[in-house]
Amino acid sequence: MTTAGAARPWPVELRLNRQKTQLTIEYDSGERFVLPAEYLRVESPSAEVQGHGAGQKQVVTGKEDVTILGLDPVGNYAVRIRFDDGHDTGLFSWDYLHELGRGQREKWAAYLKAARRF
After folding, report:
1. Torsion angle of the four alpha carbons 49, 30, 5, 94, in this order, in degrees rounded to the nearest 10
2. pLDDT at site 47
3. Are 22 and 13 in contact (CB under 8 A)?
4. Low-confidence ranges of the chain (pLDDT < 50)
5. Using N-to-C axis directions, what is the helix angle for 94-102 and 104-114, rounded to 10°?
6. Closest to 44 in 3D by CA, of 114, 86, 100
7. How far apart are CA 86 and CA 113, in angstroms?
8. Which residues are paired to 22 by β-bridges?
9. What gap in Å lies between CA 111 and CA 107, rounded to an integer?
10. Residue 8 carries which DSSP code?
11. Domains of the chain, each with CATH number or no CATH
């Protein structure tokens, strides 16, 4: 987390691997995260996954083989990720991608437990 008044990390590069199964994002803070397509899909900020309020998050399963069809910039604050399962409604802000990168280990473990894939 950044402290009040501190600059937020800003992405300097987004790179999709050839298989379209991983998105690498590098920030001006020097942090670099490799985020699998499945992880991004099941943690999508969309209402389908997050629900419409606190405590409504859904566990989305069956996305082990999902790939990323494309990345569409949204203003200067986010990217829309289009997945090959037709999902494209989540806007991944730079802050949210940073949160996903920093919390990947814990979020992924929680997902696997909730999906009973441990």
Report:
1. -30
2. 82
3. no
4. 1-3, 5
5. 80
6. 100
7. 25
8. 36
9. 6
10. P
11. 11-114 (3.30.2020.30)
Query: Tokens for 94?
Result: 């730079």
CA distance 47 to 52: 6
pTM of the model: 0.90
User: What does the alpha-carbon distance between residue 41 and residue 99 come to, in Å, rounded to a whole number?
Assistant: 15
Which residues, at least 6 apart from 61, have a Cβ–Cβ distance to it below 8 Å?
Answer: 42, 115, 117
Task: Choose among 66, 80, 69: nearest CA to 38.
Answer: 66
Are the beta carbons of 93 and 76 closer than 8 angstroms? no
CB atoms within 10 A of CB 79: 22
Q: Which amino acid is at 66?
A: V
Largest Cα separation within the chain, whole Å, is 41
Distance separating alpha carbons of residues 60 and 48, to the nearest angstrom: 9
Structure tokens that stand for 59 in this block: 């566990």
